[in-house]
Amino acid sequence: MIDRRTLIAILLIGFLVVPLVGEAQQQKIVKVGFLNPNSVAQDTWREPFRKALRDLGWIEGENLVIEWRYADGSPERLTELAADLVRLNVAVLVAPGNAAMAAQRATSTVPIVATYVSGPWLSELVSNFARPGANLTAISTFAYELAPKRLELLKQAHQRASRVAVLGVRGLRRPATSALNEGPELVSGRDKMIEAAKVLGVRVSFVEVKDASDYAAAFKTITDQRVDALFLDPDPVNFEQRGQICQFALAKRLSTITHLPAYLNAGCLISYGQNNFEMLRRTVVYVDKILKGTKPGDLPIEMPTKFELVINLKTAEVLGLTIPPLLLLRADRVIE
After folding, report:
1. What domains can be seen in the chain, in order of their start residue?
2. pLDDT per residue as tens digits for the range 154-181
């Protein structure tokens, strides 16, 4: 039989413990920030990112909050948005493409997983790929390194092509410390393209854009140059504007090549690059490791080992192109 004093003591302890349990449960909720250079309408990762985290036990509303920020294709907004995520004290900040530069400038303490970075961007972010140190690690794409190979594939698909315009070559420039889109050219990037073009018997021209407002002028320049094909640089601005780019290319009967299959849905002819969702999966694995206590600087920069070739036969038909059978056999996927 419990006496009155003991009962009161038990009830008081209960009242004290319940808030503490609730507080402990709240403390288990972590915030992940996602800084996207594009708009929410062009975000192909949002739901797959959530699902991949959920598969690893991170469930929104239970132990996870995801803070999404979108630059809507305006690189100049990335710095402000990165600072906003840092102020929210996110546990990990995921930053694709040129968003990684803004994230790195915004914080030296919040763990950063840079993804979809390559070429000059990656070299600016880290100096040691095996142990990047500090607060950042990355998943690389080889997007820029594969540029000569893409040019070769474009020539194989469109054998009569002799002039190619490269659209959005800003990504082949070394990012400056003062702005995300200005700085001295990384000469080796253009040199590799020019060297590959010479071997293939192709002349390349470089048409540069800064944001969506530049495309009308870029299209006029490309038209005036009387090119046969369009090489789309792996740039977030190009991705955001892929609809109007591919519409222009189809209207002018230009064969096109890029790094992501998502462009083919808009009418691009060929894509060659790392599997987009495999990269997402590896990004989430790194986020999971960091949330569980691993330091980002101890996670090596991941390099891709497999690349996908996708060919759009619908676009080839519109362009009047016959894709060589051997190239079709090499394709991982064909859109018919």
Report:
1. 27-142+275-298 (3.40.50.2300), 147-273+307-335 (3.40.50.2300)
2. 999 999 999 999 998 554 443 433 333 3
